[in-house]
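User: I'm putting together a teaching handout on how sequence relates to shape, and I'd like one worked example. Could you take Cytochrome c domain-containing protein from Bergeyella zoohelcum ATCC 43767, show the sequence you're using, and then write out its predicted structure as tokens right after it?

Assistant: Happy to. First the sequence, then the structure tokens directly below it.
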Amino acid sequence: MVTWKKHLKRGLLALSLLWGAGASVFAQGDAKKGEQLFKTNCTACHALDKQVIGPALGGVVERLKTEQNLDEQWLQKWIKDSKALRESGDKYANEIFEKFNKVEMTAFPALSEQDITDILEYTTNPPAPEPVAEAAADTNSVAALEAAEKAKMNSTIVLISLLSIVGLLIWVLFQLRKLVKVQQSPELAELNATRIQSVGELFEKYKKFANAGIGLLALLALYGVWNGLMWIGVYKGYKPEQPIHFSHKIHAGDNKIDCQMCHSSAKYGKVSEIPSVNVCMNCHRSISEYNGKYFEPGKDKAFYDAEIQKIYKAAGWDPATQSYTGKTEPIEWVRIHNMPDFVFFSHAQHVVAGEQAIISSHNKKNPKDQIDVVCKACHGKVDTMNVVQMANDFTMGWCIECHRTTEVDMNNGHNKEYFKNLHEKLKKQYPSKEGKITVDAIGGLECGKCHY
């Protein structure tokens, strides 16, 4: 009987060890898969090495085990549905909720237990970065050496050029001394007596040619003054340096952020407005560093990270405590597009009523420069600009030319109803345009449309 009990205990012990080993094998996560899942589901609120909206998650499994005596099963429940865990009366779950300003953590019911195990494995043993950076560093080193060699060669060329110039100057000095000696001879003095000695004598001798030249210069001067006056207020290509570097290529181009997410009044307002820093914080509250693959020439990750810190300073945001300090600073943006006070221009009128017409007209006139957003017709392809610049002249002539060539969109619900009875009359009134109604036909050239 005793022997039977001993065998039973040994069997149960072996079974429990086998089950434990099986559970351990099952619980083993894949850090690579966990990294992808972490980036997809967690990076909006968490990072491994610092607090964002939620706490830093690097080593969270070991930390919870040491500090709270909680295992991975607790983390499974918390990640799946933190609210349900809190409502069950879990003490530590409620403590975490209170500590982080009662911010509700998103539930992830779609994640399987293995998915969460993979994520936790990533937080415990994040995979080492691939050796691409080293290769890049080697490439950069080679490039740096080549640049140093090139700089050295350029310095040598500059030095040789300077020595050549010095030698040339010495030769010219000797030649001038010879000329001085020649001028002192009696033969040259007699020859100089027969030559013109002043500008007045030259003018009298060639009076007709001189008057013609003066007249030509006067005409050129008048043309220069007129041309200069015509270009007053025209700043095509103007791209000032802003207090915070903002790359539209990264935001609107690479990340496909819609123009109206930041310039919300462009569609229904007169002006598009510069977004407030609160609009920036909608995203940058959880994006404290740049992790994109694109870098502008001469700029690195540290540069972009420093610009994000400027946003935090302006907003009065403390990323360490994830809270506002109340100490804000204005951002003195430099305005690029600014209509004169005597000009009326409404973005709403163009973006809402004329959106499809403007896009269609631009694409017909510029087959090699197609646009998909109405903003680009006037402001250029902003989604490719690192620094926004004025893409067009914005002169009166430029606007009038657009009104003369852009057809009114009669498929637009507003226009179709508004011009219901006028449409046929305009077709007869403008037979040269083959029944096409352009903006000038509906008052687009009237002074009072654009000027007060």
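A couple of points you could highlight for students: The chain has a mean pLDDT of 83. The CA atoms of residues 239 and 389 lie 4 Å apart.
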